[in-house]
Amino acid sequence: MPELSSTFITFPRRTRLRLTGPDAVRFLNGQISNDVTKLNKTIALPACVCQLKGKVEALIWMAQDDEGGILVDGDWSQREALLTRLDRYLIADDCEWSDESDDAALIHLPSRDAVPKELAQYPWRSTRRFRDSGIDLWLAQGSLSKAREVINDLGLEEITPDSGESWQLFNAEQAHPLPGREITGEALPAELGLDGWAVDFHKGCYLGQEVISRVESVGGVKKKAVIVVTEEEISDQKQEISVSGTIKKIIPISLLTSHRGKTRTLCWGAPAAKAYEQWDLTQK
């Protein structure tokens, strides 16, 4: 994979919702793991949408718009799930939502703390979507092609969710869990490595907070997502492997890539020192 700073990530389709009303902040704060009150117009914050038992159902980002509303974005595949969640819990709060997904596109410039002058005309915010913080550029669908041309002229390499196998590997190596792969409603934020950057342990109550805070207080979880590098494909069954002389149990999640004698498989590993670390069994 290329250096992160030499790439740009295009999301041609993205779920994007706008929440407005006097109770918008209070309502959203009761639904997600990060603190909505910390938003300003120059940043976007990641957060987990969890169920009562603290398991992650979606990973979203939130930002403040120019009119005081809150913008929420998530994976395109989770559009209906997020809309259903809003309908289920938005009952008595003075808050409304609108769906802007059909005309929204996102370009993310990773490992950057400033917007290139060639792109300064587009609305932008600083945020973390992968291992390092970067810059979000939100565009109308009609502006996407032009923005891509400008960025290509800067010599950056494009990565998209349509990149297939390389997209799967890119996200795993960047510690970014994907819906339908790691995010299935069966894993806690700490198991996905999200507790360090998408959870605020000092904010008020939200759905799943009690379990998530308890896990933090007792010192961790029993499994984390890891990348296992082998010379042969790993079977889809639970098994034991030897990592630096230590026996570890793994449960395969997804084959990431197989190239030049090395196969990378995303697994649940227990215990793991760090989420998404690589256990390379091909090193002799």
Regions with little confidence, pLDDT below 50 for 5+ residues: none
- Globular, elongated, flat, extended or rod-shaped: what is the shape? globular
**Major sheet description:** 5 strands, mixed
Can you write the helix and strand succession as a string? EEHEEEHEEEEHEHHEEEEE
Remind me, CATH topology of the largest domain?
Gyrase A, domain 2
Distance between the termini: 23 Å
The percent of residues in helical segments reads 10-25%
Summing up helix and strand content along with how strands pair, one would put the structural category as alpha+beta
Task: Describe the 3D structure.
- By secondary structure, the chain is an alpha+beta fold.
- It is 16% helix and 34% strand.
- The chain has five helices and 15 strands.
- The chain has helices at 24-29, 79-89, 144-153, 165-173, 209-218; strands at 7-11, 15-20, 44-50, 56-64, 70-74, 96-99, 104-110, 124-128, 133-140, 157-159, 224-230, 239-243, 246-259, 262-270, 278-280.
- A five-stranded mixed β-sheet has the order 8-9-7-1-10, covered by helices on one side. Strands 3-4-5-2-6 form a five-stranded antiparallel β-sheet, covered by helices on one side.
- The radius of gyration is 19 Å and the shape is globular.
- The two termini are 23 Å apart.
